[in-house]
Amino acid sequence: MTEIAATGLVVRRGGRAIVQNATLRAQSGELVAVIGANGAGKSTLLASLAGLLAPDSGTILIDGRAISAFTRVELARRRAYLPQNPRCEWPISVERLIALGLTPTLPVFGDLPPAFETRITEMLMQWDLLPQREQAATTLSGGELTRAMLARALVGDPGILIADEPISGLDPRHALDTLKRLHDLAKAGKLVIAALHDLTLAARYATRLVVIDRGRVVTEGRPGEILTPSLLREVFEVEGNITGADRTIAVDYIAPLDRDAASAERRIER
User: Fold this and answer.
1) Options 3.40.50.300, 1.10.287.610, 3.40.50.1390, 3.30.2000.10; which CATH number does 3-227 get?
2) Rounded to an integer, what distance in angstroms lies between the CA atom of residue 203 and that of residue 97?
3) Region 176-188 average pLDDT
4) Domain ranges within the chain, ordered by starting residue
5) How far is Cα 167 from Cα 194, in angstroms, rounded to an integer?
6) pLDDT at position 257
7) Residue 19 has pLDDT above 80, yes or no
8) Strands 208-213 and 216-221
9) Residues 6 or more apart from 41 whose CB is under 8 A from it?
10) Longest dimension (CA), the chain
11) How do residues 138-168 score in pLDDT, each as one tens digit?
12) Less crowded by CB within 10 Å, the N or C end of the chain?
């Protein structure tokens, strides 16, 4: 069992608190979707959980051990991180791109060490990339590159995957395919934490939602329990409806929030 526990996280940038007193706990078998409006602090929170950004205060523990106590190699073995809008700038083969996730000491030129071949082939098959094995990574489509980067992140078999907007820019088929794969990873015992903007897909595939607003975790729980029209108004500033349950949940946005009407309604309630 693997667990990440973050308590009282504060992260400041440019003198402003981007993450404020955030607390989050997640463990193996979960696909935790972090949702919130643009600028809410999702990416900063995920970078901190991945150990890439040190918080100004608060604690982050992996299985009871402070994340700051891990060496870079130890941390790389325990968790993988997929940044938002991943890119590959060099025309290396897809096979070698995936292999980079195994160790930072791979040779720059020449054949891959034989010990890595089996694992890399497994990942190529798992992520439907066998036909692209020798293809230059710079020529992949957006969906193919996302799958290749996920394969690179997971080739070392880490217990934790942290992904920042893994379906950003993907067409519907690739978005559905990617989230199903992340769901299956969690079902197989991994811990997956992903920032998502598509609330319908987040609700259908995540085991739990964590809602962040202006740097604060304002609520969390099962999608069907916490996704409400009130939450859409308060966090996303839109009017909307939520229909269905579990894998059929759908979030329908109707209109931007009428702030004047909302303020008047609150005054009447008081």
Assistant:
1) 3.40.50.300
2) 32
3) 93
4) 3-227, 228-270
5) 10
6) 84
7) yes
8) antiparallel
9) 11, 18, 19, 20, 22, 212, 214, 215
10) 73
11) 999 888 888 899 999 999 889 999 999 998 8
12) C
CA 162 – CA 81 distance, rounded (Å):
5
Q: What is the pLDDT of residues 45-73, one digit of tens each?
A: 999 999 999 999 999 999 999 999 999 88
Mean pLDDT of the chain: 89
β-strand partners of 245: none
Q: Provide the CA 213 distance to its chain's centre, in angstroms.
A: 17
What are 256's two structure tokens?
């931007």
Instruction: Give the β-pairing of 208-213 and 31-35.
Output: parallel
Q: What is the DSSP string of 113-148?
A: PHHHHHHHHHHHHHTT-GGGTTSBGGG--HHHHHHH
Contact 218, 207 (CB under 8 A): no
Question: In whole angstroms, what is the distance from residue 11 CA to residue 56 CA?
Answer: 5
Specify the pTM: 0.89
Which H or E run contains 260?
helix 259-269
Question: Is residue 107 predicted with pLDDT exceeding 70?
Answer: no
Q: Which distant-in-sequence residues (6+ apart) come within 8 Å of 220 by Cβ? A: 24, 208, 209, 210, 211, 226
Model confidence at 264: pLDDT above 60 = no
Q: Could you tell me where the beta strands, DSSP code E, fall in the chain?
A: 3-13, 16-27, 31-35, 57-62, 65-66, 79-82, 160-164, 191-195, 208-213, 216-221, 238-243, 250-256
The string of pLDDT tens digits covering residues 74-100 is 898 899 999 887 888 889 999 989 988
**Residue type (1 letter), 241:** N
Cα angle, residue 42 at apex, residues 39 and 43 outer, rounded to 5°:
95
Does pLDDT of 225 surpass 60? Answer: yes
